[in-house]
Amino acid sequence: MESKVIPMSEAVARFVSDGCSLAIEGFTAFICFAAAHEIIRQGRKDLTLIRMTPDLVYDQMIAAGTAHKLVFSYLGNPGIGSLFAIRRAVEQGIPHPLELEEYTHFGMIGRYLAGASRLPFFPLRSFTGSDLPRVNPRIRTLTDPYGGGEIAVVPPLNPDVAIIHAQRADAQGNTQAWGILGVQKEAAFAARHVIVVVEEIVDPQVIRRDPNRTIIPGMIVDAVVHEPFGAHPSYVQGYYDRDNQQYREWDRLSREHDELQSWLKRWVYGVKDRQEYLSLQPAGTLDSLRPDPALAGAVDYGDYR
Amino acid sequence: MNSYSANEMMIVSAARALADARSVLVGVGLPNIACNLARRTDAPKLVLIYESGVLGAEPARLPLSIGDPTIISGALWTGPMADLFLYILQGGWVDAALLGTAQIDRFGNLNSTVIGPYASPKVRLPGSGGACEIAINAQRTLIITRLSLRTFVAELDFRTTPGHARSDGESAEKGIPGSGPQLVITDKALFHFDSGNGEMVLASLHPGEVLEDIQANIGWPLKIAPKLETTPAPSESELCMIREELDPEGLYR
Predict the structure, then answer these.
(1) Quick check: A123 contacting B, CB < 8 Å?
(2) How many domains are contained in chain B?
(3) Which CATH architecture has domain A8-104+158-282?
C-alpha cells in the first residue's frame, strides 16, 4: 500500500485552506504546535478554530491573525493563568475581533460524539440553570420522549480538518496513543480530513501486536507526518514532559501584543520548519524533558491459528 | 510551629470536609493539595478523579495542571474524556468536587466566564470548563475561594454554574441529580447553605477572625448560623504533611 507519510508543509498546504474549520485537539498533552506554526507560516486566514482548551497553541494562532472564530470550553493557560492574546482579541479587538462559540467540556465532548457518530444531536446532563444557553442558542433543551423530563442537547461538530498528535503510527496512519487521550479519537472520527502527527513511524506489525492501543484506524487518516517533539512545549506521555518554563514564560511575554509578535517572528516566521525550531532551543532543554522509563507489562493476546 | 498561612487553613479545611467521601473530582492548586492531604489523613481510601480522564491517580509530584503526565503514571484507570464525563461523572460516581470561582452569590451560583457584559466583557475569564456539569452531576460540591467583596457579590455578571436557586423563594432547578454546593471554604470563614431556601450561612470563623470583617467582605446581608463555631486551626501533623510532602517548594504557601 502507498505510504501516507508526507512533510508537515505539504499536509498543511493540501488539507488546511483559508476559511476552513480546524480542530487541533489534545488535552494538555499531545498539542501539535508543529502544525500550528506551519499554518501560521503559510499565512492561513479566516479559520474557525475548534478546541476544548485553546491553550498556548491557539493564543499563538489568534495573535498571528489566522482566525475569525473560536469554538471552545475553557480559555486558560493550564495551571498558570490567562491567555492574553485571546483576551486582547475578545476585550479589545486586537489584532481583530474574534467571534466566540462557547460550551462546557461535556458540551464539546457531546458535540464531537454526535459528529463522529453522525447523530443529529447529543443529550447530556449539563447547562441546567446556567446562562450559557442564553448566549449560545445552539445549546437547546428537549423533552425526553420516554418521560424523563427535560434534557439539554448540543449539535454535532464536524471539523473540516482534525490534527491529532500521538506517540506512534504506521505509514497508513494506524495510530496508537496512551496517556491523557482527551477527545483525540472523537475529533478524528468527526472530521472530514484527518492529519496524524507522530513521534515515531513504526512497522505495521508493532500496531498489530497491540490493537487495544490503537485509537485511530488508518482507514480514516489522510496524511501522516513524522515530527519528533512536534507537541513541544506541551508533552507526549513517556516521550517528554511539558516545558513548564515556556508556559510560564508565555504568561509574561504574551501580555503585550508587540512582544508576542517578536516571539512569533523569532520562533515561527523566523524558522523554516520544526527541525530548525528544535535546533534553536537552549542547549539541554529538550533532553531535560525526557522522563525516566516506566514500562507497562506486556500482555498476551494469544496466537490463534 | 503554630503559625500557618491563609492557604494552609483553606487546604486543611477542604481536606477535613472530604473525610467521608469515596471519590473526589480534583482541581489544581489548593484543591489538589487538599485532596492529597485528605488521602494521607482522614480519607485513606479516597479515589482521586481528574476531569482530564484519570481515576485513582497517585501523583508522584505536585501536578502543575489537571493534565499533568504525573497523574497518569501509576493511576488505576484512564480513558477518553468522554468515558470520564459520561460514565464516571454523569454515571453518579463522583461523591465530591472542589470548584474555584471568580464570583459567587448568596445561593452558591458561580461565575467563571466574564466580568462585565458577555458580548463586551471587561475581563474575559476562562469559562466553564467542566464546572457546570460537575456541579450538576457530582453528589456535592465544595467551593474554595478567598473572601472579598469582588467575589461575594449580590448579583453575578454571568451564571456559569448553578447553585441552589436563582433567587430567593425559587426552588432548586429541576434536572440536577446532585445536591449542589454544601460548603464554601475561604481564608476567613466557612459557610454552609440553608437546607430550606438554599441561602449561604456563615457557619464557622477561622481562629482570630471577627464577624464584622466577614460581613464587610460580602455583598449581601449575611445570614449567620445560630451556633457559630470556630474552625480548628491546622494541626502540626497536617502542616508538616503539606510542607514536607505535598508542597515542599511552598508554591501554594
Answers:
(1) no
(2) 1
(3) 3-Layer(aba) Sandwich (3.40)
B194 in a domain, yes or no? Answer: yes
Question: Is B130–A105 a contact, with Cβ atoms under 8 angstroms apart?
Answer: yes
CA distance A34 to chain B (A): 20
Q: Which of B8, B51, B199, B209 is catalytic?
A: B51
The whole-angstrom separation of Cα B3 and Cα A293 is 41
pTM above 0.90, yes or no: yes
Under 8 Å CB-to-CB from A63, ≥6 apart: which residues? A85, A88, A95, A254, A257, A260, A261, A264
Residue intervals in chain A for CATH 3.40.1080.10:
8-104+158-282
**Entry field: residues in chain A:** 305
Contacts of B249 in chain A (CB under 8 A): none
Which residues 6+ apart lie within 8 Å of B120 measured at CB?
A: none
B222 within 8 A of B230, measured Cβ to Cβ: no
With 60 as the cut, is the pLDDT of residue A256 above it? yes
Instruction: Decide if B251 is inside a domain.
Output: no
Which residues of chain A are within 8 Å of residue B161 when distances are taken between CB atoms?
130
Q: Is B51 a catalytic residue?
A: yes
Q: Is there a domain that residue B37 lies in? A: yes
pLDDT per position as a tens digit, B160-203:
999 998 877 666 667 788 999 999 999 999 999 999 999 999 99
ipTM score assigned to the predicted complex: 0.97
Separation of alpha carbons A267 and A40, rounded Å: 11
pLDDT level of residue B29 (50, 70, 90 thresholds): confident
User: Do B89 and A106 lie within an 8 Å CB cutoff?
Assistant: yes
Q: What are the helix and strand counts (H, E) for chain A?
A: 12, 12
Top residue of B25, B58, B65, B118 to mutate, by most chain A CBs within 10 Å, is B65
Domain range spanning residue B122? 6-246
Do the domain assignments include residue B253?
Answer: no
Calculate the alpha carbon distances from B198 to A58, B137, B148, B229 in Å: 40, 18, 21, 20
Paired residues of B25 in beta bridges: B49, B97
